[in-house]
Amino acid sequence: MIDIKLIRENKELVKENIKKKFQDKKLPLVDEIEMLDIKNREVKKQGDELRSLKNTKSAQIGTLMRDKKTEEAEELKKEIAQYNEKIAFLEQEELELSLKIKEKMMTIPNIIADDVPIGEDDSKNVEIEKFGEPVVPNYDIPHHADIIEALNGVDKVSAGRTSGNGFYYLMGDIARLHSAMLSYARDFMIDKGFNYCIPPFMIRSDVVSGVMSFEEMDAMMYKIEGEDLYLIGTSEHSMIGKFKDTIIKEEELPLTLTSYSPCFRKEVGAHGIEERGLYRVHQFEKQEMVVLCKEEEGMNWYNKMWQYTVEFFRSLEVPVRTLECCSGDLADLKVKSCDVEAWSPRQQKYFEVGSCSILGDAQARRLQIRSKNDNGTYYVTTLNNTVLATPRGLIAFIENNYNEDGSIDIPEALRPYMGGKTIIK
RNA sequence: GGAGAAAUACCCAAGUCUGGUUGAAGGGACCGGUCUUGAAAACCGGGAGGUCGGAAACGGCGCGGGGGUUCGAAUCCCUCUUUCUCCGCCA
Question: Which chain B positions have some atom within 7 A of a protein CB?
Fold first, then answer.
């Protein structure tokens, strides 16, 4: 959500930005908002004047009552009653106008960074940099589901029975590897100075609607029957929600947090749960990083954050690359975003394992997350990035550490979490 | 799940029974000053933060959130949320 002042003062910029994102159908909204805003302020002004008048007269009644001038007081009461009718009418109008404005404002995309590549969809995303050699071994790498199955590491048949498609039992060393990776990811971020946090795994609807649109909510979030609660789709939801309606002391910024949570997603729509294996599932686990900082420090953190993820995967012998999200593929709330993709030696291409985003003050404005200095309050800049989401991260790890004989190497970094094991076979 | 108590500004806290100079007493912290070589202490002085409209003057909102009664609500009523105490249940 952008500042409405931007529409008042520089609506061409807002329109230009909409065009850059190939959302031309939203262009008329800008003028509509501008008109509604003018009208809203006019109505508010009228209302304020009447309320002011009413307040003054009411105070007079107080004085008259004290002086026992009942008749005069009664007359004033009648006078005020007339104001109240008008005020009620104006307030209704004010409410309707501001709702309309808010509804439209929510759909206006955030102003993207100048250096975001312009493109209509994900096919126009731009590779930035490769880290590590994308090696293709001279033997075949089986599908991850087959690798894991051969090691007795997964049971999807039983999961289908208990929970349906999109769920899984991880077993034995593979389950342990899964946990080891998460523990390592946690400690990796703690060592970077991030504050470890385990958040609530369910959140209320007002928090959800603060972080996503209704359509997204419907497509992603599981609702708890009979309660105003949703299972989180990512800990970002509860981590950002943590600061809803608060003013953070400026000396506490930047807040650098790393959170663990299971994540639940319906995965309704485009892709669905149609793929074999553990790539797209209803339930996964994630170590996340979240940063709240001053605007001027935002880009600095953005660059640090994706680099942390790269460093993390490199320490696990996984080649990665960064892929910059183009304007059309960028979610409306984001200023800039890049994916960290892991190399798949089997498919001989990169696939997404994480996503780093800077949202400017858009998320903070929606949720009223502010800080304060001598010039007053301001909305903080929010960022989030994946350290490790797994089983997806597990797949990347397994493919890249797979040996011809079906075993999986455990790199140095992970061994303390695997009881010293150097190999899974 | 049951019973009770509470939520007031950065923090503590008065006011709520008895609605009207309470746009919120009093502390603490904070800022400015006196004193001091400097600081502390003491003393004097200052301001509610926020938000919306306005170029400004000024005005609207605002005592956990929402609604209601009333000319007028921190104060009365309803509702939601949260916290605390006790009981029950439970990893």
Answer: 20-21, 23, 49-54, 59-61, 71-72
CATH of residue A386's domain is 3.30.930.10
Q: Domain check: are A365 and A256 in the same one?
A: yes
**CA-CA distance, A97 to A93, in Å (whole number)?**
6
pLDDT at A39 over 80: yes
Q: Poorest-confidence range of A62-76, A80-94, A144-158, A167-181?
A: A62-76
Domain tally, chain A:
2
The parent domain of residue A308 ranges over 122-424
CATH number at residue A101: 1.10.287.40
Q: CA A404 – C1' B44 distance (Å)?
A: 85
Percentage of the residues of chain A whose pLDDT score is greater than 70: 98
Protein residue with the closest CA to the C1' atom of nucleotide B54:
A45
Do A101 and A135 lie in a common domain?
no
Q: How far is the CA of A98 from the C1' of B62 (A)?
A: 19
Stated in angstroms, how far is A6 CA from B6 C1'? Answer: 44
| ipTM confidence score | 0.80
